[in-house]
Design brief:
six-stranded parallel β-sheet, binds 2'-monophosphoadenosine-5'-diphosphate, Rossmann fold, six-stranded mixed β-sheet, globular, alpha/beta
Length: 285
């Protein structure tokens, strides 16, 4: 938080339940301090059944905006008056902007976060060159599908423990997205350019998805949305096979960039090493 908050400060925040473990205040406030802004970024934890009332009360610009996290992302989209294509396609919003005219605008920066992480950790990777395989069919998978389609992925395959959820997700997106059986994974992986773990497997240090990564082409990229631990078992397996990997922490850090720009009207200062800051916070450095 800036040391010089005045009555003119721009206020934004993050809203979730629970919110205690969010790293967003750490990231945004480090940027605010480095940029010397008269601004603050704070955590909010409304009661779960009061989310809509909380958001409604901010209309008219009581604060500039909110990031929204679990479990409110779908309800955030529903609470907004207008939404970006990406938020609509993802079926969820992680960013709400409170306009001065009383309206609420929804956006989703998780997708750009995913693409930004790919660009940062797998530079030169061409999303349009080969199909993508996503493990999981929850909210995180849905957001990834939306971003990958807009970025030109020729096909996105969804594989999920519960096949009906994969089919439902594929049906919502049209012909470029297909649901596939876990049994079909070996065939799918053999020509995939990018494999993404969008399940919660591996969170907290357990085993990740059992996908046979050795069947992926040598140039394939393997990404994991799990970032606690930083190197989940799925990524360690990919790394041992010599595949390029992209971690969930980079995705988290990258989604914060367009949010900061929307709140404070400028890019985050490049002088802050937010990755090092986050790694220290996670006890990984
Ligand atoms: P999120 O919003 O983070 O995507 P979610 O909607 O709860 O969270 O989705 C979690 C994903 O992890 C789902 O794809 C889930 O599979 P199911 O649809 O079959 O529940 C997947 N998942 C969670 N635990 C799993 C496990 N033990 N084995 C396989 N998949 C698992």
């Amino acid at each position: 938080m800036s040391s010089t908050i005045t009555g003119a400060a721009i206020i934004a925040g993050v809203c979730g339940a629970p919110i205690k473990h969010s790293m967003s205040p750490l990231i945004h406030d480090a940027w605010i301090a480095a940029a010397g802004l008269d601004a603050a970024y704070v955590p909010f934890a409304p009661a779960e059944d009061r989310f809509e009332a909380f958001v409604d009360g901010l209309r008219g610009g009581a604060i500039r905006g909110l990031n929204v996290t679990i479990p409110f992302k779908e309800r955030a989209l529903a609470a907004a008056d207008t939404a970006s294509d990406l938020a609509r396609m993802a079926g969820a919003a992680n960013l709400l902007i409170f306009e001065a005219d009383g309206t609420i605008r929804a956006d989703n920066t998780d997708g750009p976060g995913l693409l930004g992480a790919l660009a940062a950790q797998a530079s030169g990777f061409d999303i349009a060159a080969a199909p993508v395989t996503i493990l999981g069919a929850g909210g995180a998978a849905r957001g990834a599908v939306a971003a990958l389609l807009l970025a030109g992925a020729p096909q996105v395959r969804i594989v999920n423990r519960t096949p009906a959820r994969a089919e439902e997700l594929a049906a919502a997106f049209g012909a470029r997205v297909v649901a596939a059986d876990e049994a079909a994974l070996p065939g799918l992986l053999s020509d995939t350019g990018l494999v993404i773990n969008a399940t919660s497997l591996g969170l907290g240090g357990g085993a990740g998805p059992a996908a046979p990564l050795e069947l992926t082409p040598a140039g394939a990229v393997v990404m994991d949305m799990v970032y606690r631990p930083l190197r989940p078992e799925f990524l360690r397996r990919a790394e041992a096979l010599g595949r390029r990997t992209v971690d969930g922490l980079e995705m988290l850090l990258r989604q914060a960039v367009p949010s900061f720009e929307a709140f404070y009207g400028q890019a985050p200062p490049a002088s802050v090493d937010v990755r090092a800051l986050a790694l220290r916070h996670l006890g990984e450095a």
